[in-house]
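Blinded run. Sample ID left blank on purpose so nobody reads anything into the name before looking at the predicted structure. Input follows.
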Amino acid sequence: MQPPAAPDHPPSAEPAPAPPGVKLRLANVSKVFRNNEQTIEALAPVSLEIREGEFVVLFGPSGCGKSTLLNLIAGFDAPTTGEITLEGRRVRRPGNDRLMMFQEHALFPWLNVLDNVTYGLRWLPNFRFHPLRRRRRAMELLKLVRLDEFAHASIHELSGGMKQRAALARALAPDPKLLLIDEPFPALDALVRAKLYGELQDILVRTRKTIVSVTHDSREAACLGDRVVVFTKRPGRIKAEIKVDMPRPRDINAAAVTAYAAQIAAQLEEEPRENDDGKRD
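Blinded prediction complete.
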């Protein structure tokens, strides 16, 4: 009888040691989707290190694998190759150490604002049997995002921007080591987005959270990121890394932000085009 086949990607015996100051490490991470009809290479091997307290923006055209990579970091899916480690420990599944803000706010409509924020705290050891502690934590965060006056409001009573701020408070409640943001602002009008950009930067400075965000808006990338990682078309590869050396808070309409945005967008304009045979010129 033949021995059982080895798994395609066996887990490492011990977590890889984290280099000093590195919070998140991606080593040759790729993703291929397969079914009976086709095989799609969504993400080519990617290696990246993100430091403690850094705001890194993944930027690239639609379909380049940005959100796929964010899902891999969150633990929602497993990479086809490579390894993701957070503080030296391999990411294998979702956890409270990595929380996601989605494109939709994903708030529970049957709960009020306060109960939405406390919901994720119910299963944490320090909060599980302490309702007053959960409430205090939630109110601190609602005050941080300027929603403390709406703690008992229903979700349908909030504006779009207020819903996103409530979602941010809920994501911050368990004090995650890593906050993941998947384009949460595109459905909002320009004035509301500009205000939220300022508030998010203020929260970043006050909490010093490590953040990985996804966008295809070069101005948003320049306004929010400490570093912008530019991806090629599918299968996504890292084409460039641009350090945004500007003080905070940043105004998305400022000339310096516009200049950085142009530099970031230029990376996509330099992408080689495919000819009629599907080959790159």
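Unblinding after everyone has recorded impressions. The mean pLDDT is 85.
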